[in-house]
Amino acid sequence: MFSRTRVFRLFVVALVTSAGGLLAGRAVAESPSLAKSMPAGALAFGEVADLESVIDRVQSSDYLKQVLESPQFQDVAKSQQYKQAQAGRAVLEKQLGMDLWTVGKKLLGNRIAVAVYPKPNSDQPDAVAIIQVKDAQTLVNLRKQVEPLLMLTGAKIEKSKIGDGVELVAINDSVFFGINDKWIAASSNRDLLTRTVGLLSDEEATSLTEDDAYQLMSKKMGTEHLGRVFVNTGTLAEATGGRFGLPEKMDNPLASLLVGGILELAVHSPYAGLTLDVEENQFVLSAGIDGDQSKLGELFSPFFASPPATGTRPIPAVPQLIGGVTIYRDFADWYGRREELLQPQILPGFDQFEAGLGNILPGRDFGEDVLPQLGKNITLVAARQDYSHLDGKPGVKLPGFAAIFELGRPDEGAQTFQMFFQTLSAILNLQAGQQGRKPWLLDTEIYKDVKVSYGRYLKKPEGDRLPLVFNFMPASARVGDKYIISSSVDLCRNLIDALKKPENNKRVEKNLNLEFHFDPFADIIEANQDFFQAQRIQQGRTTDEAKQDMAAILNLLRYFKSLDFNTTATNDAFTVQLKGAWK
């Protein structure tokens, strides 16, 4: 039987194998997949192609140059461990006759694949790795240099023929290598290595490409990718009692709401897959599992959108948007099914929650009265604000934050949220003295035909280093079937502008959508660099060193453009996608 920790490690091995292709630039590798050279029955398989371009891109990248020149790296370079590592590198490069960059390009520049297999009567799996070399002569030279070093270690080395043009090298009868002039195969299991070498030598045998789960993943996610990972979740689920050790009911309400349906779908999927594709200044990392969510039954219907009728809406494109996340869930349905989805000891916490909410929404039952007024989308955004509510600036400048609630019953829902906003503002006003500020006066304005409720000071606070609380000036507004609650009047107005645009009313076929933009985030860090520099000085850095630290951090942040993360459920698969862009 495989432990849960062991299952996780198997997946991580495959994931790390594919991650090396992150910076590669070619769309599809030239040589065919090494899956055809792996024996059938693998628990997990990972493959990366065209590592020569990966290494080239990393070696010549501006980002690497910035990292090496950063004060943080210079501190590392002064350490004894780093100096010892560099000395070892110099000795190794001299012995090999080339630098490690070149070794990587010529030896690892084509394809690398790793697969793990169940081992009878053991929770320690067997593994096999294949390196398809880019330059055959480098492999010959490397063997000439490495074998004498192995002899000096006292290791027992045995050589024999294992096939036409293939040499078997056994080290201490525990690690086995199959080597010819085009590839190296390695395993701790001699029989597994022999079968792999046979497939590499075009012998007739059953390969991984004939496994049903692998074929299904290839059909759903494609085979033409720079990096791929396959995990046979069906076999792993059987080995761990059928559910990867996951309980049928969860003990964390937030985890249940966010990933409960996804985990249930994964339990029934025969595979989990990961693919990587990279363009000049962008990567796309996709993960997927098989499954039709409708077959899970009504219990799990709150977790999945049914496009085009339901799904997330676009994140509003307000000026200086730092980031945003929008999630689709049938919150009322999930709440009504909580006894079926959550463990019994968790349920009393909901009674306490409803009792506390009664102080803000008196006379309203949360499950019966409030949640049905809420729609199936909640959006959170953060963006830079202009501090126009002040005649000064806070000492620490925060962005504006806002939540946008879709309304299931727009008129009733807007009244409930307005009551919530007024009650919350009154409670916060009672704490004004403790926070070192004057109370807000609740006021209204009409902006673009939308009524905006907001707090304002009778006299705008003055000063260049006002306390943190002066970042906030609450505002709320209803725009159609959406209700905004914001920490900034400026952001609330910008959201009204964005939500009035027709494109923001369209449904997107996603269950979750997240965006993060690096430049506005770096602007916020830069606006607070005096604060961060002071912290660095308190940690022992000199003034000049603290300034250099901040400059390096800002340069690194501005190298990147954006991150986009989303999940999508179709009638036969669930996909998670991460996109990253750099300049």
Name the shape in a single word. globular
Sheet/helix structural class: alpha+beta
Rg calculated over all Cα atoms: 29 Å
Count of discrete domains:
2
Based on DSSP secondary structure assignment, what is the total number of beta strands?
22
Number of helices: 21
Low-confidence stretches: 1-29
Mean pLDDT across the residues is: 87
Largest sheet: 20 strands, antiparallel
> Terminal Cα separation, in Å?
47 Å
Strand content: 25-35%
Bin the helical content.
Answer: 25-40%
Summarize the helices and strands and which ones pair or pack.
Blueprint: H1 4-19, E1 44-49, H2 51-60, H3 62-69, H4 71-77, H5 80-96, H6 100-108, E2 111-117, E3 126-132, H7 136-152, E4 157-163, E5 166-171, E6 175-179, E7 183-187, H8 190-200, H9 212-221, E8 227-231, H10 233-239, H11 253-267, E9 272-279, E10 282-290, E11 321-328, H12 331-336, H13 338-341, H14 348-357, H15 366-370, E12 374-383, E13 391-394, E14 400-407, H16 410-430, H17 432-435, E15 441-447, E16 450-456, E17 462-466, E18 475-479, E19 482-486, H18 489-499, E20 512-517, H19 518-527, H20 529-538, H21 543-559, E21 560-569, E22 573-582
Parallel strand pairs: 13-17
Antiparallel strand pairs: 1-2, 1-8, 2-3, 3-7, 4-5, 5-6, 6-7, 8-9, 9-10, 10-22, 11-12, 11-20, 12-14, 14-19, 15-16, 16-18, 18-19, 20-21, 21-22
Helix pairs in contact: 2-6, 3-21, 19-21, 20-21
